[in-house]
Amino acid sequence: MPASEFQLIERYFARLGTTRADVVLGVGDDCALLQVPADRQLAVSMDTLVEGIHFFPDVDPESLGHKALAVNLSDLAAMGADPAWVTLALTLPKVDEAWLAGFCRGFARLAARYQVQLVGGDTTRGPLSISVQVHGFVEPGRALRRDQARPGDQIYVTGSLGDAGLALLAAGGGYDAGERLAVLQQQLDWPEPRVAASQALRHLCRCAIDISDGLLADLGHICEKSGLGATIRQAAIPLSEAVADYVHTTGDWSMPLAAGDDYELCLVIPAGQQAQVERIARTLAVPLTLIGQMESGAGIHCVDAAGNKVADLQGGYDHFRNA
């Protein structure tokens, strides 16, 4: 006989993640009871992953558990918040305990790394989907809000861009990535939330955003909220060898500029901080690249190495426009 909903909760979710002193009451009651520090604001974000839209049906459940939490931790990193608690709503077509065990391993391993405790959620039957809500703490007035950019501020990105998009293109048969496919697939299935980079750099930043829908789309949100434009130096955009080869072969810059699913950070930092930024990046061992600057006006303009404007690209992924 398949396990009941409450048996599944007790078996897989009751003690998932680390144990925190600020959790007065966690999984197992109608509500969790949580203690927010008196000198912090609560940052909350939620993402839903749906089979066939965000992940393939045959995805490794352990990587899916990791990614379900990682994409939410990435939102906290973008706000400059420290991770604390998480809730999980899991809709399953059937009880598959081997699948659940793998999912929970991936989820729990990442939760332990960032001292996150699962404090509640729901388990229901239906088409496979995963909704995760994260909670974090941020000093009052220090959140990295999208509306704080100023003209002349410099734009940085962590890591490299386009790897996840190229992995998706290769998986669909649209590109032969050869021996590099495994590395690209790692970037797609096991994204690394840039929590440490956010914590190290947030005192220098005006605002930030995580790159989930593509650089142009996500930077565009900062531009819109701040009432500014931006210029991006296309040649400065950090590319892995695989994406650099793809761009060189095809001339297609949409992969690093608009493909999305990278979960790197785009950070807006006042001019004059470059030496500090580079020093911090070395201690983190995380690539951090200056790619452009915020400007008066509207829109995002990409320029080539000579400073000439290149053709505009469409923005990133939109669930309804791209349906």
TrEMBL record:
Span of domain PurM-like C-terminal: 150-299
Pathway it works in: Cofactor biosynthesis; thiamine diphosphate biosynthesis; thiamine diphosphate from thiamine phosphate: step 1/1
EC number, as in UniProt: 2.7.4.16
Binding site for ATP: G121, D122, R146, S212
The organism's place on the tree of life at top rank: Bacteria
Catalytic activity, reaction form: thiamine phosphate + ATP = thiamine diphosphate + ADP
Binding site for substrate: H54, D261, Y317
Keyword Acetylation: no
CDD domains: ThiL
Entry's Gene Ontology molecular function annotations: ATP binding; magnesium ion binding; thiamine-phosphate kinase activity
One Gene Ontology biological process: thiamine biosynthetic process
Domain (PurM-like N-terminal): residue spans on this chain: 28-138
Further comment found in the protein's record: Reaction mechanism of ThiL seems to utilize a direct, inline transfer of the gamma-phosphate of ATP to TMP rather than a phosphorylated enzyme intermediate.
Name of the protein: Thiamine-monophosphate kinase
Source organism per UniProt: Sedimenticola thiotaurini
